[in-house]
What does this fold into?
Amino acid sequence: MKLNIFFLIIGLFLSIISKVLQFKIKSYAYIGNIIVIPAAICFCLAILFSIKKYYYMFFAQETRLKAIIIAVLACGIIVSFQLMMILIFSGKEIYGLIFLVPLLLLIFLFIRNWFIK
It folds into this structure.
């Protein structure tokens, strides 16, 4: 099985579980909010492994470390964004904007690592 399909299936499964907990079982809605984060990470990895440049970078021995760094940065972007949105919209807290700083920093580092050889 290709890695992008594997991560996509896991992401879909976690997303379905998350939505069931959020909307059908209201007492476990907070757990549904937390399960969204690994689902988003799986979707991010599915997208990365769908890109040929990244796929070859990951399986080439000399560029594997760079590919792992790019994946960590991309997943960090997703986690920062998800936490910011959960805090702003679910908890009605403006403190979620604190996650805007690491979000922008990680975006900068991701773009820098993606385009530098």
The mean pLDDT is 90. The helical segments are 3-23, 29-50, 52-59, 64-90, 100-115.
